[in-house]
Specification:
The chain is an alpha+beta fold. About 40% of the residues lie in helices and about 20% in strands.
Amino acid sequence: MKPKNYTSPQKVKLNKDPKLLDINEENEVKDFDRKQQDKISEEKHLANTQYKKNPVIQTDRIPSSPTHSVISSNKDIKKYIYDNNDNTSPQLVQPTMNRDQSLDKDNVVVESPTKHKINCDTEEQAVEEEEDAIEEENTAKNFEQDSEEDSEEDDTDESSEDEADSNSEDGDDDDDDDDEEEEEEEEEEEEDQPPLLHYSRIKSFPKSLFSARDSISACYFHSKFFAYGTHSGVLYIVEPTTEKFTPILTLKCHRSSILCITTDSTGSYFATASIDGTIVIGSIFERRENDTIAYDFKRPLNSVVLSTDYKTTRIFMSGGNAGNVVMSTKNWLGNRLDINLNKTQAGPILGIYMLHDVLFWMNDLGITFVDIHTKKVLLTTKFPEDHYIRPDLYKPYVCFPENDRIIISWSSYIWFFKLSIFGTDSSPGGNTHLMNSLLSSAASTLKSSVSDKKIEQENFLKCDFLINSISSFKDDQLLMLAFPLPSEDLKKSTPPPELKIIESITGEEIYTDQIISKNFQNLTINDYHLGRVASETNSNFIFISPNDSILIEELSLKNHYDWYIERSKFDRAWKIGKYVVDDRQRLQVGLQYIQQLTEQEYWLNLPNTILDVFREANIDDDNIESEYKNFVISSWETVILDILNRDKIDIIINSVPESPQLSSYVYDSLLEHYLNTRNTKIFHELIHKWATDIFTTAKIEDLLEEIISTKSDYQKDFSDELIYLYLKQKKFLKAIPHMIRLKYPEALTLLYEQNLFVQFSNYFLDIILIPISSKNIQLQDLERFSLEKIQQIFKPSISLLVQNCRSIPLNIIINYLSEPKELKVILFLFLKEVSESEPLLTAPFEDDILELYARYERDALLGLLKNKSSYDIEKAIKLCTANPGNYSELIYLWGRIGETKKALSLIIDKLNDPELAIGFVKQWGDPSLWEFMISYSMDKPKFVHALLNFPDESGKTYLEVIKEIPNNMELDDLQPTLLRIEKENSVSLKVNNNIFKIVNDDTSEYANEFLKIRNMGKLFDITNEDQV
């Protein structure tokens, strides 16, 4: 006799025949199934009568305490949601044709815009670039709009008073219009965004699954396969591809609805729980005879979970309407041992799940976490007290975003838990402890150490909708099916479910879509299923109802790219194109975007766009194909020439590249354009920026020469550019004439450095006078300047003349600089420098040099006369005689021709310089000059005094002077002078006598010695015969 409250399950082996039980047992199960369906219908009706809503969203982070805090009131958050959704219901996803997609006969394709801003790309950089593209496009549009508004500002001011009166009367209508405009702007923004998800009906499921006789009742989504069970108890396991759903296993497991499907951690074994009270466990891929086993618990089961290492332990847990959480295993004798882990008995078990060795279930009490090893309750989270929502009417859903995170959605609530493992065995899958924890006391010594575990609630959200299914999406987002809270309106009509994406931290709703499935009016929340299917790139989900199945695909970057292309949003397509297409395709899209901006006259973004498009064409790579590189360059040229033809080249002129180098025709066209428009500023910038080898210089030079010849207002500006071109190409012979014409001092430097003065001797005076003509100094003004200043001004010209003094005959230079007379100072400076560096060259022109010295530098004339010898002395004497004061020069000249007495008399008469006269006489050493000087100067006391004080070694001069002194001449200091002379003579006499005595004594000594030697004989050695 079996107990009423709890019965041990019976083990039933399944054979190949899908009929597991006999006819009588099957009828009993059908009767029980019918009663259960009636009970569920009553519960659904009761749920539909509940109508009062709770606050929309509550968030809570729980570091230490389970208290919840409401961050927003129902009114505020609800207003936010409605305002951001245009105060309307979310857009329906109808299986009919819409503006963006077409519907074929059998399949539906729906793309819906997002309600809020969503990061749609998998690559973070692609997301940023796509957002930048949107922002740039909006900026350009705003700029154009602002320009139009500015142009209409005056008209608006004139009519402002009338409009103000009209607005005061129709204020309410204006508010409505503003709201409509805002809604239109929001709709436009939505249309600018690509859809987040793509919907398509799945046709590869067997049609029998959606018939009136049978439909899907439970689903399980695994990375290796997709399993679903039906209300008739049939289990289907197929490959996780949405194209064909190739069957892996089809098995008749139960007599009634399958309510739960699960697998072990490896996906090798499946387990199903049914409303008929049985659990069926079997292998999926390695099918063997008697491999599938059924267990009968005699009560409807809602959930089952296999241990992580079921293949070794053969442990599974189950629960259902009985309220027990049963862990089934084997004892020492191999018999099945059932242990009830739930002591509370608080209503039916709605779901059982396991993460590592932590088991958790949901019932009326809430969520209970238990460590299987120790049977210790780690955490119990109560279901929020809500008088309008019964927890047993709604199935809980669980997802594991990470190996230590648990997210549970139940009714309208979402919990976030974290599992922490401490101790010796903190690795996942340490399920040997699970088996050891079930051993009897006799084998307790074999029990290994058990890790400590901790469950913490990290966050809690309360939503204003019921939740069916939940899955992690991306970027801390959650995807779920949402249903309205129970209300009176639900009695009249049942709305379709909504697919929602929310932020897991704040609960902020990011995305909402209604999914219209077949016969949705007759379905309830527990009739729908949503799960993730395997995909190599994006997140794909399958939506299943009793009558329909829809594939929900996250759009990839390629999908976004195609979406932008179809809608001619080439800027955004180009931004993300580098992640999904090759360089050529991306360049073509960029060219379309440039063409679009050009045609729409969005000039603001055009320069940067052109640079970005072509610089990111990646033609700098050494391995790039030449054909592709030529295509890029050709496209670049076409863009520039098109904008040139539109007369908007000024906007992009700074974007014209030098590298890669375009054809010379492009650069020639641009330069010619600015020449024809006389835009000297931009032409100057281009000429100085571009290398001369990228455009046809000869063509541009000819155009410049033509413009300069017209003598227009632009003559000087374009002459400068022409000179620059010539100099850059080292065409000095062509540049110098223009520089001379414009009186540029740089012409002198160029002529000197390149030694080209001879070639331009016909411009002789123009070149020489550039230093003053460039400063607007007149030639007559030179008389006001000092010689040093003039020398400083004309230093470049003088250096140039000196450099070419052998190339240009000196007489020609002298002729050029002789007239007008103001030029002679330049001639003087030139000849002065040449005479020092090239004296032989200037010898024939020393007379001219003397004349110039006498005029401009008289102090140096005497030195010149002494250093030079090729001048005509007679002309020199005549020149010096004609210029009063040239006594020193005349003295030198007369002395040079032997007129010493004439020169001496000039010194005595004109210069009255006794020292000079005495020096002159000593220089010539002529005794007659002494006599002439003494006799000629005896009437001059100054000279007499100088002669008496002049050193006289012989004393004869003193005697002669004293004899010639007139008796009536008065001399100053005559007595001391005579005493000094007498004393000097006396001393001189004594010295002479002493010297004579010394000489005489020495001479006598040497003479005596000589005589003695002469009187001596000579000794010969006769022993040496040879000498004899």
